[in-house]
């Protein structure tokens, strides 16, 4: 409902600290289903994202199942992770799948040239990744190598994974421990082809994409949905060219956008200890996601009016300066309440565009960028972003409901302003109506009156859910204080026919409205 919110900003400047914002959920006009894959995750061979953070190997003293940390997997399962994208990112276009099969002790050792030039011993390969997906109960999204690979290499990887035949590659899979073919849910042809994937232009890539997909052959029940590598930030050319040029075998076009507080790659801003000006710019920059999606949708609607092709935001999240003293190539950053607010704002945007945005993957799962979990040897800590993901679980596969906001106030800094309240609603699979509210203002609480039913009248009597907030903008969890930021129960009852939710400053509230 961002657009409506912005329209209501004229009230911003004169709004009092406790102006009542009115949210109306129209249950009579259900919208598209919010695909559970909107809550997808991304795990790249980068820093300690996989090695240490999730994979410790079967011989580790850290409790593990088939090499994957039990504590981390257990926590991730609570998020009902619908799918995991692997092995990159930029890493994908230098990854050769045959390096990651067979006995681990015999696998070639490579250098991870994208991320810190550290050694990559290929301990995690195709079989290990499928183990992780199975442990999580998640679908798999494998990113193929177009940059330094070949059509043949991608075609053979698909055959290795999905062939029920007696071909040499299928037999090799059996020899390596997997008899039955795997279902590969999604497969992408390269990553960021405009940059680390090969510095191409979209026209050239469109031809390579068609060439590749011609040779991705698999039995119907195991065949992946194929994803084309698209644009980023305000560039819509990739979505335009791809949806014009490619007529078959393209389930989605990817799109990447990272939220950087300063908007500058050279000095991005710190994850904690930042000034309020960077809280504001982070809100402002993350809300740009809405316009980028709208612009991509506009070109896609022109070329693909039947909406056959999805816009998959398969990398998004905050990107800060790395924590002092850590390897610059590892992209390790703390995660604060600000990140949880960013996540919730993006969820609300994705819900609004559920007709096209059918998958997103936050970057990244563990220890990298906007992570769910941070680890330190045997210890792990859940981040505020983790809690935001958990609070939004009811939105997975829920039916979106239109929400209108009246009297929305603004959070302003100087001459600039962003809407104070962002709202999203859906009817979940349990039949209940869920409402998510976000307050971008780090200083002012607000009251939100909730109406359910739209023109048919108001039936809202009760709100039951959770609130995530804290006194400090950069409140975060550490290994010594792991519960500094965590959700608390929140409920409200209607009084005098009016249901009012008290939305604290810098907060996220999600709950069921009855
Ligand atoms: O997520 C980190 C990196 O960001 C990915 O490898 C790349 O695709 C993007 O530029």
UniProtKB/TrEMBL annotation:
InterPro entries, sorted: Alpha-L-AF_C, ASD1_cat, GH, Glyco_hydro_b
Quaternary structure (record): Homohexamer; trimer of dimers.
Catalytic activity: Hydrolysis of terminal non-reducing alpha-L-arabinofuranoside residues in alpha-L-arabinosides
Family recorded in the similarity comment: Belongs to the glycosyl hydrolase 51 family.
Organism from which the protein derives: Pseudoduganella umbonata
Assigned keywords, A-Z: Carbohydrate metabolism, Glycosidase, Hydrolase, Signal
EC number: 3.2.1.55
GO molecular function: alpha-L-arabinofuranosidase activity
Leader sequence residues: 1-19
Residue span(s) of domain Alpha-L-arabinofuranosidase C-terminal: 314-507
UniProt protein name: non-reducing end alpha-L-arabinofuranosidase
Short name of one Pfam family: Alpha-L-AF_C
GO biological process: L-arabinose metabolic process; polysaccharide catabolic process
């Amino acid at each position: 409902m961002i657009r409506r919110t912005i329209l209501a900003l004229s009230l911003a400047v004169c709004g009092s600290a406790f102006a009542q914002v009115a949210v109306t959920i129209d249950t009579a006009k259900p919208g598209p289903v919010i695909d559970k894959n909107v809550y997808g995750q991304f795990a790249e061979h980068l820093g300690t994202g996989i090695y240490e953070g999730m994979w410790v190997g079967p011989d580790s003293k850290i409790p593990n199942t088939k090499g994957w940390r039990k504590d981390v997997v257990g926590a991730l399962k609570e998020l009902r992770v619908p799918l995991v994208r692997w092995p990159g990112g930029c890493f994908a276009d230098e990854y050769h799948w045959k390096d990651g099969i067979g006995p681990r002790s015999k696998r070639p050792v490579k250098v991870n040239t994208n991320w810190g030039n550290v050694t990559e011993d290929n301990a995690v390969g195709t079989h290990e990744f499928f183990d992780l997906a199975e442990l999580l109960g998640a679908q798999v999204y494998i990113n193929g190598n177009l940059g330094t690979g070949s059509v043949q290499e991608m075609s053979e990887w698909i055959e290795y994974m999905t062939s029920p035949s007696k071909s040499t590659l299928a037999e090799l899979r059996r020899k390596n421990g997997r008899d039955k073919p795997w279902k590969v849910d999604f497969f992408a042809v390269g990553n960021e082809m405009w940059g680390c994937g090969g510095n191409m232009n979209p026209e050239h890539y469109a031809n390579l994409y068609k060439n590749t997909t011609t040779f991705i052959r698999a039995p119907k029940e195991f065949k992946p949905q194929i994803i084309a590598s698209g644009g980023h930030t305000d560039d819509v050319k990739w979505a335009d060219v791809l949806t014009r040029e490619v007529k078959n075998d393209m389930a989605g076009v990817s799109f990447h956008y990272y939220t950087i507080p300063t908007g500058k790659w050279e000095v991005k801003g710190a994850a904690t200890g930042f000034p309020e000006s960077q809280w504001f710019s982070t809100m402002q920059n993350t809300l740009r996601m809405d316009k980028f999606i709208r612009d991509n949708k506009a070109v896609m609607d022109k070329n693909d009016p039947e909406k056959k092709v999805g816009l998959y935001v398969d990398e998004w999240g905050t990107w800060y300066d790395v924590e002092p003293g850590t390897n610059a190539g590892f992209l390790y950053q703390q995660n604060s309440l600000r990140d949880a607010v960013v996540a919730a704002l993006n969820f609300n945007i994705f819900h609004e565009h559920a007709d096209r945005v059918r998958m997103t993957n936050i970057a990244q799962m563990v220890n990298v960028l906007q992570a769910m979990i941070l680890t330190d040897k045997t210890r792990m800590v859940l981040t505020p972003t983790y809690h935001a993901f958990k609070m939004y679980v009811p939105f997975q596969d829920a039916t979106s409901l239109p929400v209108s906001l009246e009297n929305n106030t603004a959070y302003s800094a100087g001459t600039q302003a962003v809407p104070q309240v962002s709202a999203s609603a859906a009817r979940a699979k349990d039949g209940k109506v869920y409402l998510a509210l976000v307050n971008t203002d780090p200083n002012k609480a607000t009251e939100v009156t909730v109406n359910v039913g739209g023109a048919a009248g108001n039936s809202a009597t009760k709100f039951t859910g959770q609130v995530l907030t804290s006194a400090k903008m950069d409140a975060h969890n550490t290994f010594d204080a792991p519960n500094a930021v965590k959700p608390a129960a929140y409920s409200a009852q209607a009084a005098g026919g009016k249901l009012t939710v008290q939305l604290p400053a810098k907060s996220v509230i999600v709950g069921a409205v009855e």
